[in-house]
Structure formats: C-alpha cells, structure tokens
Amino acid sequence: MPELRKDPISQRWVIIASERATRPSDLKPDDPPPAPAFDPFAEGNEDKTPPEIASFRAAGTYANKPGWRVRVVPNKFPALQIEGGLDKRGDGIYDRMRGIGAHEVIIETPKTINTFTGLPDAHVHEILWMYRERLLDLQRDGRFKYGMLFKNVGRSAGATLYHSHSQLIATPTVPQTMQIKLQACQDYFDFRGRCLVCDMVAQETEQNERVVMDSGQFLAFAPYAPRFPFETWLVPKFHSSHFEHHDRTVYEELAFILKRTLLKLEKGLNTPPYNYMIFTSPFHTPPSEHYHWHLEITPRLTPVAGFEWGTGFYINPVPPEDAAEYLRNVKL
Amino acid sequence: MPELRKDPISQRWVIIASERATRPSDLKPDDPPPAPAFDPFAEGNEDKTPPEIASFRAAGTYANKPGWRVRVVPNKFPALQIEGGLDKRGDGIYDRMRGIGAHEVIIETPKTINTFTGLPDAHVHEILWMYRERLLDLQRDGRFKYGMLFKNVGRSAGATLYHSHSQLIATPTVPQTMQIKLQACQDYFDFRGRCLVCDMVAQETEQNERVVMDSGQFLAFAPYAPRFPFETWLVPKFHSSHFEHHDRTVYEELAFILKRTLLKLEKGLNTPPYNYMIFTSPFHTPPSEHYHWHLEITPRLTPVAGFEWGTGFYINPVPPEDAAEYLRNVKL
C-alpha cells in the first residue's frame, strides 16, 4: 500500500510507492560524463575563465596563476548580471525587474576530477570555508536578498562541466522555495514555541530509523518525506539559522560528514547524478529562533514528469527507512 | 541583460536570460523512443492491461475487446491505490496518510502511434470528452480532492511508453501547486474584483506579442514568465473555473486549437519531449468567480538543476515573445 507523507518544511506531500520498485540496482544512473579533452577549470588554464573573485592559494603565488587550491570565478554565461539597478516595473498585470544578481563558480580543486570525495578532509573544509566567505561577501550588496549555494553532478542533474565545482547565485528576491520554508518554520514556532528542525533532529535521533550518520554536531538522515530515492539531508544538531555564521571547527566537522555521506552515495549507488543545495537564511537577516539551515542532497535516479510538475507531489519508490539502512551499511 | 519576470498565477519568478542561448535549433530534444516491438496499448492487446474503466467504442463491440477509439484503464503500477480509507495519522512531528487515490491511463488511440496530432479533430475531441467524463466520475468519490490530468511525451518528460496516452491521478489532498494558484487568484480577485486569467487574456490579446493562436473561444499563448523555452498555455477566453463543465462545442474547439498548437511544437522543434497538465478547480467545488482553468504545455529542452530545485526560480534562455513569434510562423 503506498503511503502519503508530508514534509513539514517544504510543505510538500510525497507518495512513497514501494510497490513501484526497486532495489538500488534497478535505479539506473546515467553515465558520468567522461573527463574532457580540455579542462578550463584545471590549474594552468586560469586565463580560460573570467578573472578570479577569490582563491585560497599558496603563499607567494598570484591571482589568476597556478598555486591555488580553491578558486572562485564569475560564471562565463551568468544567469544574472552584477552591474546596474533593479528597475522594478509593472507591465500591465505582470511584474518584472532587471536580471541583477551574482553568479559565481567555486572551482573546488585544481585537478581534473569529478568529485571532491577523494580529497583530504582539510581540502573539503576549505571548500566549505569558501562558501562561507562568498556568502558573507555577497550580502554586503544591498540589492541581493538571497544566496543559493548548489552543486550539479552528472547530466541528469544539469551539470555541463566535468570538473568538480559548485555554484552560488545571489538573487534580488527571496526565492519562493525559501519563502515557503521560512513560513512553515515560522508557523511551527508560533504554534509550538520550538524550532521545527530542532524537533526533527530530536525525533530522528530517537526513532533512529532514517539516520545515515551522526558525527556529534551534525546529523545526516533520510527525510521523512523525501521527493527522491536516497535523498539525504545534513543538519547541525544544535540550533543555527545561518550556514555562514560558524567558526572553523564547525566546517571541519561538516566537511567530515559531507564527504562521507557523498562517498556512501557514490559507492552505494554507482556514482549517481545528484544535486545538493544549502538552504541558509536570507541575506541581511539576524540570527533567528525559528529557522534552521540545512543541506539537501538529491540523487537523480527517477524521472520527473507531468504529475510532479503539475502538482508538486513526488512519487518515490524507495521508503526513506530502506534508503537510510542501505546507506548506513555502505562501508567506506 | 537578463530580465526577471514573475508569473502571477504560480507566483514563481523566472530569469529570461537570452544571452545564454539560443536558436531553436540549439535546443536538442532527446531522441523520441522507437516504436516498441510489443505495444500493450494497441488494439487486440486489451488483455495485456487491467480491465477497462471506460471506453468510446463501436456499437456492438464489447468491453476489453477490439472496436474502441479511446480507452481508459487503471495504471498497472499505480502511484495511489483505489481501495481503503485514508487513515490520517501523525508520526511525531510528521503527517501521513495511506496512499489512496486513483491512477488511470487514457489510451488515446488503438493505433501504435506516439502522438494524436495526426488523428482527425473529431478523435481529439473524443479524448478531451473522455477527460471530462473521468473527472466527473472520479469526483463522485468523496475521498478524492483533486484530479490532475497530464501527459508525458518523450523520455526527458518522464514517458516510459511510446503509445499516445494521458494519465489522470486523483489525490486525497489538493496539491501544493494548485493551492498556490488558487490563493494567488483569490488574492487578485479580492484586491481588484476581477479574475486574474481574464485580465491576462485581455492583456495578451491587446499586446499581441505572445499569442501563438486565437481560435475565437480559446487563446494559445506564451506566458509572460515561462519556466521553459516554448512553454505555451491554452485558456478559454471566457471565464470558466472548471475544465469539466463545458458542452461538446467547447471541447470541439479546444481539440482544434490543442492539436494545432502541439503540431506547431512538433514541427517547429523537431518533436520535442513535453508535458501538458490541466489545472482545473478542485473536486466538489462550485463554479468560482476567481479561478480560471488552464492547460500548460511545457517542452523539456533545458535541464533542471540545483538552482531551480533549490529556489523555484527557472532560467529560460528564450524570451516568450520570440518563442511565440517562432511558433506563430510555423506553417501547418
């Protein structure tokens, strides 16, 4: 019998339809793209990208030259442009504004590799520290209201480049998805006087059916109502509204658990296409009692079709309890 | 310069980023799936599907035998199941219910073809008349709150079967996407005292920049803020809240314009994968002044990646004015 479950943060219902499938081996990832003949993100090709915005690099090396470990450049084909005013206007019943924003690429390694899971934890820590730096820097610009950090891996997940990288898009409005999450967390807090995600952490830890890994300060778990098979969330177990408000030790532990969670997905599911997204608080907001940042990892193993597009319902053939158990047992 | 536009019904912002592409020929559809060796939906194979729920068939022919023109069967792998009570329950902070609903397949023709655009208008009319019949029948069941009619064509659009068909899923809650649309239309009506889509029809007709086809009672147009290149909506130009509340002449005209709009997409874009979805009012609701049903056709020519999943923003490289002009000029 299928089951309908509601995710309390996104307010989405999902259909857990385990009759429709499926052992992990039935979920076929698309082929990972081959390493390219020419890699514009590799060390030595710094002149093939726009000039760098930031980098962590060896002492004595120069911007846009080799010697970096993590490097941030503007997207060569930006979805939004950095220069100008918003020029908000009506057009009859419609609303528009100029496409102002920032679109940055975080190149995560100088090597031509497709994933950072083979790199030392200290390197993954530097990637996360760079996420923090860029979020802090971009919110100095009052035109930007939100910064979405995300990663596309594999063609079905929308990746067009092989080399391990993430992206950051700063938008001039708070995205609809975030507005729904913020409202749900606010409503929950107003009703119960507690943070929704803190309550989620408590229940997940206690039930212990959907936990993939617990690192002490962070929990990796399959959410109660996942849209996609093997969807996995990472949340701090302590309350925190802003991803970018931590000190180094926190990112060190996040690097540890993020790398191992991704490794389990890669090993257990044969390098699936996936996205991850960091849902931090909007720019220019103070620490809040009701919102709690989180990172969502969504493998792309099932198609999204008219029903999902039309309703916002998702059909997931793998119960999260099964997915979590499977991933827990993947040996690293 | 990219432009941000807001769709007033879905409340989504989209980024029209025409610098990022793109002539229609640059948008590569995936290959349409080949005709299958065995077609379970073809005439003569009626015993390869679950027993039929409804059909339009020649006088003197029998259910589950040849002689039908349009045939409805339960989905063999249903996302929701028809039998039982909802058994709504909490699970700590979470909500769940049993996966009760209906999942039907509308087989649109006895022939092994991938699209109904080659069939006579009268046949397409019967398909739409069947949509109406099934919506009216399913809402007799008080457990079901909404009926989503949709079509998946091509692999990137989630289709797994070649034979021309649509699906109808009746859900036990009103989907989130519909709730957002209903609220937006209600808010607009409360503020202005007019129907949002009626105002949209007036503005589109007057500006005449995004119209693809006007059949008199129906308008096919590129919406102001399309998520996808060549997204096209069909709406009645007169006010109507329920798709299923019309008489035959209305579906005749809808069949005329729907078939020709799809033909233009097929000819102009080299048979792209696409979905369409009908957004009618929820079940058991009386005719309303504020909601106006519509049909959305969404070709799948651009990937959906972490940014779109995370924000609900969409990046569309083709301005709707260009898309409409292109489709207007496709000769049938």
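The longest strand of chain A covers residues 146-153.
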